[in-house]
Structure formats: C-alpha cells, structure tokens
Structure prediction request, 206 residues.
Amino acid sequence: MPFPPELLNGGEQVVLDLRPHWWYFARQGAALVVAILIAVISLVFLPAPVMLAAAVLLAGTLIWFGWHYWQWTNTNFVVTTDRLIDREGVFNRTGIEIPLERVNTVLFRQTLFERMIGSGDLVIESAAEQGAQPVPNIRKPLQVQNEIYRQMEANENRKFDRFGAAAPSPQQSIPEQIAKLADLHRQGVLTDAEFQAKKQQLLDRL
Prediction:
C-alpha cells in the first residue's frame, strides 16, 4: 500500500515510496513454481495418493507465498522532503522515522549478484538513539542514496532560508535576540545544538 498522505506534515512531500526488491520473496516464488510442476506431473503420471500429497504441497506453498507477498505490500521505505520513514508489518506495525537533519551518513552494500539484479542494502547512520539503521532489499540502492543526499541538501537550504527570513535583527537587544532564537527553536527551525551555540554567542557579548 502507498504511504498515506494524511500522515505527512504540512508542506511535506513524498519523493520516493519504495517496496522491497522482488528478491524479497524469491524463495517463496521458486517454491511455488516447483510445487506447481510437481502438481502437474502428479496429475498426469502419478496415482491418486501422490496427487493428493502434491495438492496439499501446492496449497501450503500458495499460502506461504501469499503471506510473504502480503508482508511485501505492507513494507515501505519512504523518502520525503523532511524525513526518512521505514515501516513494516501486516497486523503489528513497526517503524522508524529519521528527520533528514539528523542523518549523518547513508551507506549502501551490494554483492555482485545484487548488482546484477539491481538490489542491495542501505545503512543509515544518524544522530538518533537507534544509531545505524539497516534497510535491506532496496531497489537501486545507489540511486536511492543519491536522492537522500539531494533531499538532505535541499532541506538544509530551506532551513537556512527560513532562518534568514526570521533571524534576530542586530538592532534588537541581546535578550530580545535570544527570545527570537527560542521561538525559532520551538518552531523546529533550529536544532538543540544550534540554538545552544547561537545563544552562547549572544551571551558572550554581554
């Protein structure tokens, strides 16, 4: 299912909404093909007891494939203009959201075979409590990595534009400038570290 638009923040836009690469259910797909072949062969050449066993095998494999496919449709890796979102789960949902300004590094890993089929893994290193967050089975991971960096740069530019438009004026007193910085911090324009650094700069001028 696509990422619900009602979960986006004001002005936020979805840039990438990805499902895992098809290799995610390659084993289940291969097992289903084998089960179908066994069922066809038993139907034509083998006695009824073997046909029954083949039918049970086919039914079980179909259920296994269907369940894994359902999990696939409920797994999202989303890149927006503000954050990275990784969600999965059919009944019990789990996920993580990382603001772009907290992302430090995005690594990608590919084996030779994964390069051939266009799959790979991402590892997102951030300032969040979770640290390094692996995201497996990503389609075209190098392009996704580049897009994340583009959105990080665009987000940083927007933040500086907002800060430039609402920054404290040098004509204001230092307490007034600190109050203005506090407003920007509450609005999310400044991070905790940026607010404390700029506040200390003003206090040093007293």
Remarks:
- The mean pLDDT is 84.
- The radius of gyration is 25 Å.
- DSSP finds six helices and seven strands in the chain.
- Residues 28-71 form one domain.
